[in-house]
Amino acid sequence: MKILVCIKQVPQKDAPLKLNDDSTWIREDVSYEVNEPDAYALEEALRQKEKHGGEVTVITAGPARASQVLREALAKGADRAIHLEDDKFVRLDSANTARAIAAAVAPPLSDDNFDLIVTGLQSDDYGCAQTGVLLAEILGLPHATIIIGIEKTDGGLHLKRELEAGHYQFIDMKMPAVLTIQSGINKLRYATLIGIKQAKMKPMRKVTWAEVESKLSRNQQEIERLYVPQKQKKTEMIQGSAGEAARKLVEYLKNEARVI
Amino acid sequence: MADSILVVAEQREGKLNRVSFETIAAAQAISKDTGWPVEVVLAGNGVSALAQELAQKAVAKVYALESPTLEAYTSDSYVYALKSFISEKQPKLVLFPHTYQVRDFAPRLALALDRTLISDSIGYKHDGGKLLFTRQMFQGKFAADVSFAGDAPWLATIQIGTFRGDHAEAGSALVENVAAAVADSPARVTPHEVFQEAKQAVDLSQAEVIVAVGRGIKEQKNLALAEDLAKALGGEVAASRPICDNGWLPLERQIGSSGQTVAPKLYFALGISGAIQHIVGMKGSRTIVAINKDAEAPIFEIADVGVVGNLFDVVPAVTEEIKKARAGA
């Protein structure tokens, strides 16, 4: 099975974020990591390859710094990587991001024919939950979202889809297909030392902005303003040492909130 | 056709998804600002009765968009039918509830229409004739006002709980049955029945006190801190998604969009940052206590009382104080 995994580099979960000067994006001088649902998508791709043979390719779109998540994926066992490298990829809307990825894996830039394309169900930065579905539309492939189990069958794929409030559904589909993967589908592996060494020898193909620009269109949605959300509630913030804070908190719950 | 707002309501297996009424409430609010009338479409097979239920709201019209291919949900049949319907009606704005089903087909529908979808909105603004949708970014650390840069129809999904379904204005509308467009080729995904895993052992929705832990708990063994606090309070332990993904607590104790929705008297959020997927499952709680080391964590925006500090120091101290308070009571 030839599998493509779309991954994204996002700010680290506990990185303190600041707004840029015109309040349309964050200041980029923070620490980054791989988007967590994408890590699960990669892990699932590696497991499918181990079970059924084949090859795993990882792709990302982002600045030079984003090559870090590709190197990590190669160290975990991916076979090759594609980096759509440019600062401008950061501010593309979901449809244009999907168009860029589609262009990078299709003729004339490449003649990859992937059996399966997987990506995380959403990103921790934008959180639009759209890129994977849009990629399927652009490539003319069927798709399924929020997948929590994958079983390869003779005819294609037998999948477990998560629905709301503890409900699930099995679905069947043929390949090639695009799947968006839910966190927790598997247990993530760590890169081994040998893996990290081998990663340096694995191919990483760069794709420039100019090579895909003709496939992009103007963003159809724009962030006008990014800001710290207004509080919905007045929060009583309690100060002091752990002991003091605990005392005041319990007093509050007893006398003000009257819940204990 | 004059400018209008089209609400795409949702049903599954012959039952209306109640969040459809929240989206109708959102559309009614936007309609007051813009003057655009609200229409509703419900896709399915034999859904007239459900459409009648939707027609009890103050909307201009409800369409039952029907075909046997819409009996069980597939993205292919939904995209095909709704693309054709929306192309013909040309509404200004199309609103959906941000459900898992909508997430599955709405992006594809938008692109098939050569339009865009602003997903997971938690509000809107109508500023000088410009319509903006507010959505969370960076896991709730920021909010963004997002505008449509292209032509209508504009598509947006509304986060669950943003508008109150029971606040949707009542009225009486006509139901029109429309035969849905059907593709020549069958759907490429074969759906099977929706099911629940084995009956859940705990029903968190009945708990009066819930002590929930998030990533900040760091290691499985630290769960004892939360268990001690829950025991002192006579409550149940629960968690945000990552804790259950790690297998530290069973999935049935997960709170949030993919887990349970709860509204206890008292909710402790320990080391939970407050991503929207978690918030939607617990924001109805009467008193929310947040303990987190990060003063900027979004959980503090919905907390009634907050402590910024190391939960490994604060939580045992709180447990002790609760025990004292209980002993004295």
Describe the structure.
- The complex is a heterodimer of chains A (about 260) and B (about 325).
- Chain A is α/β, with parallel strands linked by helices and about 260 residues long.
- Chain A folds into two domains: about 1-215, 3-Layer(aba) Sandwich (Rossmann fold), CATH 3.40.50.620; about 235-260, no CATH class.
- Chain A has seven helices and 13 strands.
- In chain A, strands 9-8-7-10-6-1-4-5-11 form a nine-stranded mixed sheet, with helices on both faces.
- In chain A, a hairpin with a 4-residue loop joins β7 (about 145-150) and β8.
- In chain A, α2 (about 65-75) packs across α5 (about 195-200).
- Chain A is globular and about 70 Å long.
- Chain A starts with a strand and ends with a helix.
- Chain B has about 325 residues and is α/β, with parallel strands linked by helices.
- Chain B has two domains: about 5-180, HUPs (Rossmann fold, 3-Layer(aba) Sandwich); about 205-329, Rossmann fold.
- Helices cover about 30% and strands about 30% of the residues of chain B.
- Chain B contains nine helices and 17 strands.
- Chain B has helices spanning about 20-35, 50-55, 75-90, 100-110, 225-235, 240-245, 275-280, 300, 310-329; strands at about 5-10, 10, 15, 40-45, 60-65, 95, 115-125, 130-135, 140-150, 155-160, 175-180, 190-195, 210-215, 235-240, 265-270, 285-290, 305-310.
- A nine-stranded mixed sheet of chain B has the order 9-8-7-10-6-1-4-5-11, sandwiched between helices. Chain B has a five-stranded parallel sheet with strand order 14-13-15-16-17.
- Classes of the chains: A alpha/beta (about 260), B alpha/beta (about 325).
- At the A-B interface, α4, β7, β9, β12 and β13 of A face α4, β7, β8, β9 and β12 of B.
